[in-house]
Amino acid sequence: MVGQKTESASQPTPRPDKRKAIILLSGGLDSATTLAMAQQQGYDCYSLAFDYGQRHRSELEAAKRLATQADCVEHRVMRLDLGLTGGSALTDLAIAVPESETDGIPVTYVPARNTVFLSLALGWAEVLNATDLFIGVNAVDYSGYPDCRPDFIKKFQELANLATKAGVEGSCYHIHTPLIDMSKAEIIKAGSALGVDYSETISCYQADDQGRACGLCDSCRLRRAGFEQADRPDPTRYR
Amino acid sequence: MVGQKTESASQPTPRPDKRKAIILLSGGLDSATTLAMAQQQGYDCYSLAFDYGQRHRSELEAAKRLATQADCVEHRVMRLDLGLTGGSALTDLAIAVPESETDGIPVTYVPARNTVFLSLALGWAEVLNATDLFIGVNAVDYSGYPDCRPDFIKKFQELANLATKAGVEGSCYHIHTPLIDMSKAEIIKAGSALGVDYSETISCYQADDQGRACGLCDSCRLRRAGFEQADRPDPTRYR
Fold this sequence. Notes:
2 copies of one chain form a homodimer.
Chain A (H helix, E strand, L loop, with lengths): L6 H4 L9 E5 L4 H12 L3 E8 L6 H12 L4 E6 L33 H16 L3 E3 L15 H14 L1 H4 L5 E3 L7 H10 L24 H13 L9
Parallel strand pairs in A: 1-2, 1-4, 2-3, 4-5
């Protein structure tokens, strides 16, 4: 019908000569950069966000905007209630988000989160016949989460090839972690060169409904320091 | 208040001298036997079922009844929509459940299902401070799913110790698979000796709302043959 545009009609269609990749897209700085890198490498990108009971729900809106801006072939939001199991300041409102540096693995760690996220991404990848998964984990300027380290990623990749029909039948899954050895400043420089609009990203663990950041949590502090060290203006909207 | 009994008051409380275990409890024959084995080994059992968009939803009711009968400390049902990604006869009503033997890995395979289930169980285990997880996978009389094999389980166990705060801090996760090398008949004999009431279990991939089995799908055929080979009466209600 003339003058009407459905959501599906407005979506880019995959090109048969391009390889597909799943991108875990939280809506933060790191995953937005990872998406830009996957696109630069020529992948048709399928982005995946998780509505897992996180307190910073505005990141879900950011992820959706970023996926649209980046012409992802499809953006999916999977719901799962990690708040049911609790154990993290990100899913349990009774546990405060720390606003100064803490020792060890902080209470913002969500038990087994990246294992759960990668598992669900793997299921979608298998259905799409995609063998490339991108995740923006980083083991330099990060919060010390165990499931952001190279050893974990390597093991998950090995698991993926044993866990799936596609793996058993000869497909070889690759978990891409383009940011893993980069500092936050390096990530920001690389993403800026690829045109990432960081004003659209939300990193704050306790961003408000309008997406405004606290400026105090671990994630805000790492992000702010990153812009300083990269000598770039920080576009974050603080409240 | 006298004469009133709340659900929480009726639940058994964990004993501090006992170790906790998470049991993946689908409501089928294998997981019911696995639960009985974990209890016999002296664990306080926390059972976990998944409402993942499966067509055979009556298995969720079976799981709940089995957990109650077995005095599980807690029974949880986690919701996640694996139907969103599709790719399986168990989650996509447009794909028929095969009613005769097929070659290779059948269409009832759900992409990355056991990886997803074990990941979510791992998150709960970490919060409960439990390091023992039980799963009723079987690699003898089974449907050929890749994520039921010993290699997969071994790899997931390695992953669990890298993926979690508890693992990094020295806890050692153990994925128990007491059925993995048993035939269906051996499982039935062992469970019967432990008092498992198999009339309460539902294995059928297309059980109806009343929990009645088709008698034709892969899971029904393996189950029926198991009772025959074990020389036990088959208590399954067929429609």
